[in-house]
Specification:
The chain is an alpha/beta fold. The chain has helices spanning about 10, 20-25, 40-50, 65-70, 100-120, 140-155, 190-210, and strands spanning about 1-5, 30-35, 60-65, 125, 160-165.
C-alpha cells in the first residue's frame, strides 16, 4: 500500500522522535510517505494540498490541529460561511470563546478531506492529542473543539473517511511519559506508542479491505 501521512511536526518527526521511522519496520512492504511539516496548521496543510503536494495513494492519514489549538484566538480564521451555530466574525480586539476553534476551522478541514479523497479511496482522520490538559489560555478547550470538529467531518464523509483516536493508545503510559519536556512532541516512548497504534490500524484496514473484496 502507498500510505501518505499528512500533518505537522508530530508527523515530520522533529523536534522529538519519529513515529514513521518506527512504523516502517512494522510495514516493510508498504510505501510510507511523510508529508509532515513542523509548525503546520489546518490552513497551512490545506494550502499545501491545493498546491498539488499530494500524489495518488491507497490511504491518507491526516493528523493536524495541535498548532491551531496553541496559536490561540487571534489566529483563528474568519468563518467562511455563517450558520445557525456561528455568529459573524468578531471585530478587532473582541474575545472569542476557545470552543469556537473547531467551528471556524471546519470548512478548511473539510476541504482537506475532500482533496485527500480525490487522491486516495480512504482517509483516516486523527484528532489532536495532548498528555496534559493545558488548561491555561484555553488550549484544552480548543483541543476539544478541534477534536469534535474532526470527528464530525469524518462522520460526514463515512465510509471513505474514518476517525481514529490516538488518545486511548496512551492510556497505559504514565501521564506525559510519551512526550518531550514541552508536552507536545513525541519522545522515543511516545513514538513507539504511535507507531504501534498506526501499525495495528493499517493491518486492520488491510484485513477489512481483503475481507470485503468480491471473489469469483
Amino acid at each position: 500500500m502507498r500510505i501518505a501521512f499528512l500533518g505537522d511536526s508530530l508527523t515530520e518527526g522533529r523536534p522529538g522522535e519519529s513515529f514513521l521511522a518506527r512504523l516502517r519496520p512494522r510495514l516493510p512492504h508498504d510505501e510510507l510517505r511523510n508529508h509532515g511539516r513542523a509548525g503546520d496548521t489546518v490552513p497551512g496543510l490545506l494550502a499545501r494540498l491545493e498546491a498539488g503536494e499530494l500524489a495518488s495513494a491507497d490511504l491518507t492519514v491526516v493528523w493536524i490541529g495541535t498548532n491551531d489549538a496553541f496559536l490561540g484566538e487571534w489566529y483563528l480564521p474568519p468563518l467562511l460561511e455563517a450558520d445557525d451555530d456561528a455568529a459573524a466574525p468578531p471585530g478587532p480586539g473582541a474575545s472569542l470563546p476557545p470552543d469556537a476553534a473547531g467551528g471556524r476551522l471546519r470548512p478548511l478541514y473539510e476541504r482537506i478531506l475532500d482533496l485527500t479523497l480525490t487522491r486516495a479511496p480512504l482517509t483516516v482522520c486523527v484528532p489532536p492529542v495532548l498528555p496534559d490538559p493545558f488548561a491555561e489560555g484555553g488550549i484544552a478547550a480548543r483541543v476539544s473543539s478541534i477534536g469534535a470538529m474532526v470527528a464530525a467531518a469524518a462522520a460526514a464523509r463515512a465510509p471513505r473517511a474514518r476517525l481514529f483516536e490516538l488518545a486511548p493508545a496512551f492510556g497505559a503510559v504514565q501521564a506525559g511519559a510519551g512526550f518531550t519536556i514541552d508536552g507536545v512532541h513525541l519522545n522515543a516512548r511516545g513514538a513507539d506508542v504511535v507507531a504501534a497504534a498506526f501499525g495495528e490500524l493499517i493491518v486492520a484496514l488491510r484485513t477489512d479491505a481483503h475481507a470485503t473484496t468480491p471473489r469469483d
